[in-house]
Specification:
Blueprint: H1 2-23, E1 25-27, H2 34-40, H3 45-52, E2 66-68
Antiparallel strand pairs: 1-2
C-alpha cells in the first residue's frame, strides 16, 4: 500500500510539473510584438528578451512562435 501511495504521489508531481511548464510558454498571435507580450505578462521587453535569449534588435515575433514568459 505504501509503495502504491508513493507511486501515486510521484505521478501527481509529474503531472503538476507538466501543467506549470505549459503556462511558462506563450504562443504568439499574428501582429503581436515582444513589447505587447511583455506588457501583458508583467515583464519588460528586456526581461522577455533575456528569458528567451533574443538579441536586443528583436522586436517582432512570428505567429505561433513559442515565447517563454517565465525563466
Amino acid at each position: 500500500v505504501r509503495a502504491r501511495l508513493a507511486e501515486m504521489k510521484q505521478n501527481d508531481a509529474g503531472t503538476n510539473a507538466a501543467k506549470a511548464t505549459k503556462s511558462d510558454v506563450y504562443i504568439a498571435k499574428k501582429g503581436e510584438t515582444l513589447k505587447k507580450i511583455a506588457k501583458n505578462h508583467g515583464l519588460t521587453i528586456n526581461q522577455l528578451r533575456e528569458i528567451n535569449g533574443y538579441p536586443k534588435s528583436k522586436k517582432k515575433v512570428e505567429p505561433s512562435e513559442e515565447v517563454k514568459i517565465k525563466p
